[in-house]
């Protein structure tokens, strides 16, 4: 897929990225190459391939889920501007 100058300008606008006019042709070529690679990857037959979360078959060492700090809610809420029934009150932001 070959991107045109207007396509690159539109992508830059949507991404809120400022790019120099002199670099647009370079970006168009690079982005076109990326899209071509993605298209090649889409053509690969992945029937029967199990999805993986990570390419290495590694197990994570998990630590025990233990409480490591004491409950300091009263201390933290004592300096809060507004608290009700143990919860911080904040101004309404959605109508």
Describe this structure in words.
By secondary structure, the protein is mostly helical. The chain has a domain at 5-42: Histone, subunit A. It is 36% helix and 4% strand. It contains three helices and two strands. The chain has helices spanning 5-14, 24-42, 73-77, and strands at 83-84, 87-88. Strands 1-2 form a two-stranded antiparallel ribbon. A hairpin with a 2-residue loop joins strand 1 (83-84) and strand 2. Helix 1 (5-14) crosses helix 2 (24-42). It is flat and about 60 Å long. The model has no long low-confidence stretch (mean pLDDT 91).
Record the SSE blueprint.
Layout: H1 5-14, H2 24-42, H3 73-77, E1 83-84, E2 87-88
Antiparallel strand pairs: 1-2
Helix pairs in contact: 1-2
Task: Outline the biggest β-sheet.
Answer: 2 strands, antiparallel
Question: What structural class results from the helix and strand content?
Answer: mainly alpha
β-strand number: 2
Distance between the termini: 45 Å
Named at the architecture level, the CATH assignment of the domain at 5-42 is Orthogonal Bundle
CATH class descriptor name of the domain at 5-42: Mainly Alpha
The percent range for strand residues is under 5%
Under CATH, the topology of the domain at 5-42 can be stated as: Histone, subunit A
- Helix content estimate: 25-40%
Strand order of the largest sheet: 1-2
**Total of DSSP H or I helical runs spanning 4+ residues:** 3
Gross morphology is: flat
Determine the mean pLDDT: 91
